[in-house]
Each structure stands twice: as C-alpha cells, then as structure tokens.
Write a structure and sequence with these properties.
CATH architecture: 3-Layer(aba) Sandwich
CATH topology: Rossmann fold
Oligomer: single chain
Strand content: 25-35%
Radius of gyration: 15 Å
Length: about 180
C-alpha cells in the first residue's frame, strides 16, 4: 500500500461530511458540504495527493480546506514531524473544518479562517507543498511566491490540473488532466 492509500485508510471521508451525507462517504463523486462548497471526489483527491508527493516532516499549505478532510490526509502524510495549515474562506466551514481536524487527533495540523483578499497564508511561508482545492483562472502568483525551494504546488487552473515544481529559480509547470472545481476566490 502506498502512502496515499494508507492516508485514505487512516482518515475516513465519513468523518468530514455532514451527518446526513455520511452514508454516501464511499461515493466517488463530490458531495455538498453547504455554502456552495463540496467535499471533493476521492479519486480526484487521490490524484492530487500523488502529484503533490508529500513527504514526512514537510510544511504543507491546504488552500480551500473546506471540511478539513484534505488537511487531515496531508497531516497523515507529513506525520508528527510535519506541519499542515488548512485555510478556508467560508467562516462556518472553517469553524466546522477546524473541529473535524481537531477530532482527527493530529495536533501538527490546523485549519483556520482565510483572510478575505489574501490568498494562502504568506505569514507562515515558505511551504514545501501547497494543495489548492479550488479552480483558479490563471496560476496565482501569490501562491507561487509562498512555495519553498524545492517545492511542489498542485492546483486546477482553467479546468486543467497543474503541477508546479520549484527548483531554485526554475519553475516547471506540467498538466495532468481535466477536472472541475468550485472557483478559487
């Protein structure tokens, strides 16, 4: 079993869904979590985590953390020597997601309310890995600036999953299929 599969086994999706939707946890599709947001399709999350290639001990930013499921999956991947910060713009989701992450029992992970008009969490940068679970129209420079060296950023841009790899001053951007997400705001 690879690390991503182990994270999925250790962090069940059901604990990050509204109570009335938990019976659908095995459904391989997005599930509404309210406020026009979704808990992403498991297959999509798995693909994104494989691209991100999180290693133990890394510092990870989770943008659009929603219910906290991806934050907890990332925390499982980093292990207790890592640090995972989830940010969510919708206040009620941020509060609920923070509680879900707390209940997951990984104190090296947290989820906070994102600041309107501020993308990511630059005060805590740089990050070894950045995961974005919302679709941007173009590659957001503020997130690229928060990426450490070396670093990896996975983000859907205009319907295409992009992997940005920083190596010194070089940035390599590759495309990895077509996906649909709620808009990044």
């Amino acid at each position: 079993m690879d690390a991503v599969q182990a994270a999925f086994a250790a962090v069940p999706r059901s604990g990050f869904l509204p109570v009335f939707e938990r019976w659908r946890a095995d459904y391989d599709g997005p599930i509404s979590i309210g406020h026009d947001q979704t808990n992403s399709q498991p297959r999509t999350v798995r693909d994104m985590l494989w691209l991100l290639d999180v290693q133990p001990g890394q510092r990870v930013l989770d943008v659009g953390a929603g219910s906290g499921w991806t934050t907890a999956l990332l925390a499982h991947l980093t292990g207790p020597t890592g640090l995972v910060l989830g940010v969510e713009l919708e206040p009620e989701l941020a509060k609920w997601g923070a509680e879900n992450v707390r209940r997951a029992g990984m104190p090296w992970a947290s989820l906070t309310l994102a600041h309107p008009g501020l993308l990511g969490a630059p005060d805590h940068a740089p990050y070894d890995r950045i995961l974005v679970s919302a679709e941007a129209l173009t590659l957001p420079e503020p997130l690229v600036e928060q990426l450490g060296d070396p670093g990896r950023l996975v983000i859907p841009v205009a319907g295409v999953m992009k992997l940005v790899v920083r190596d010194g001053t070089d940035l390599e951007v590759t495309e990895h299929g077509y996906y649909r997400f709620v808009p990044l705001r």
